[in-house]
Amino acid sequence: MKYLIKNANIIPMNEETVLSNMDVLIVDGKIAEIAENISAEDVKIINCDDKYLMPGLFDMHVHLNNSDIVDLLFANGVTSIKNMWGFPKTLEWQKAINEGRKIGPTVYSTGPLTDGVDYWKGSNIVKTPEEGEASVLKDIKDGYDFIKTYPSIPKEAFLKMMAVANENNIKVVGHGNEFLTTKELIDSKYYCIEHTNCLPKEREEIIDIAKSGMWLCPTQAVVWTIYDFVINDKELAAIPYYEYVNAKEKEMWEEITKWRKEKPKDEKRRFSMEEVIQRGKTFIEHSDNILLGTDTDNPGVVAGFSIHDELSFMINDFGMTPYQAIKTGTVNAARHLGVLEKVGTIEVGKVADLLILDKNPLEDIRNTKTINGIVKNNFYYNREAIDEMLIRVLDRPIEEVEVVYKA
């Protein structure tokens, strides 16, 4: 299939600019030409008069826990994700999407959440160097893209995991490690800290992490929900788009929120949001290695819709411009994943993962919500098709929802 996008205002994201009234020729899912007044035979025309074309968004911290999440992410313009707790079902969906048998975002996934204690039910527990080595090798054998760690892995076991991961060229991401100093974590080549509240409290240590080249995925969406629903007892049912959360997920949300409130460890979560935001700002002052991620489907974080909230948090919490915020979910995400030569910008030769918007997001970040169409895997989904996807989520019988993980 060939598509010819006509008269689009292109936001290419390889620089801060808008290329007005340009055509884009897509052949076999890749961008073949960008120019004015392209003519081509045997193409499907997509008229983009007065519309804006930008790369598809990445959500770089997702828990793909049920099948509704796949639909909600895609319908909201998320064309790629980093899944942060892998299961066999994750790999099945990843393969089906890559082969075009399932509509959804391209999936990059960590292996199972690995920790030294059973903080989250079902975690992979590692206590010894031998177990650490076996855990990393199993994740590699199973075909996962990253290793995910929580902070309570004993020091020697964690360092063994890092050594084995480095030897095998697989990156380790997650919550760092409570038994290592910041310098030791940096020296181990830890790749990405997830959540601003997992950064050290000391400013100089944050600066050291930022300057080291480590990445940060702030996930302000979930940081704010923990503050709102665990600390300040706000009602989950009052959030926007709650109607898109299926009954099984709502039940899980209530259970997790209750559990968080009761756990002694969560006294540590009674943080000052101003302090946490300042940690993120400190990192951003010294590094561009920032990623867009939401931590859906944590309680209060509605899949897909929350990516637009996260973009706003990048601006409102950290002082970014709209261009800088979008960059965290396009260029930076692709660079982090090692796929910038394929996706993340609109350039000839790259994969056509594209969003068609009614309004310019560089003028107002909320305009990323004005999705008129999506191009992905050499298919074009107009607004009607996107709305039908959302309606299917609302109407889907609960027994047809595939659940990957239940806490």
The number of helices is 13
Average of per-residue pLDDT values:
95
- The counted number of beta strands is 16
Helix content: 25-40%
Report the principal-axis shape: globular
Structural class: alpha/beta
Q: What is the rounded Rg?
A: 21 Å
Return residue spans where pLDDT drops below 50 for at least 5 consecutive residues: none
H and E string: EEEEEEHEHEEHEHEHEHEHHHHHHEEEH
Percent of residues in beta strands?
15-25%
Distance between the termini: 43 Å
The largest sheet is:
8 strands, mixed
Explain what the structure shows.
The chain has helices at 67-75, 88-98, 129-142, 155-167, 182-187, 203-212, 220-231, 247-262, 273-286, 305-316, 322-328, 331-337, 383-395; strands at 2-10, 19-27, 30-35, 44-47, 52-55, 57-62, 78-83, 106-115, 124-125, 146-149, 171-174, 192-194, 215-217, 354-357, 371-376, 379-382. The protein has 407 residues and is an alpha/beta fold. The protein has a domain at 57-83 and 191-344 and 391-400. Strands 1, 2, 3, 4, 5, 14, 15 and 16 form an 8-stranded mixed sheet that branches.
Concise overview:
The protein is an alpha/beta fold. 35% of the residues lie in helices and 21% in strands. It has a domain at 57-83 and 191-344 and 391-400.
Index terms:
alpha/beta; globular; 407 residues; single chain
Tell me the layout of helices and strands.
Elements lengths: L1 E9 L8 E9 L2 E6 L8 E4 L4 E4 L1 E6 L4 H9 L2 E6 L4 H11 L7 E10 L8 E2 L3 H14 L3 E4 L5 H13 L3 E4 L7 H6 L4 E3 L8 H10 L2 E3 L2 H12 L15 H16 L10 H14 L18 H12 L5 H7 L2 H7 L16 E4 L13 E6 L2 E4 H13 L12
Parallel strand pairs: 1-4, 1-5, 6-7, 7-8, 8-9, 8-10, 10-11, 11-12, 12-13
Antiparallel strand pairs: 1-2, 2-3, 5-14, 14-15, 15-16
Helix pairs in contact: 1-13, 3-4, 6-9, 7-8
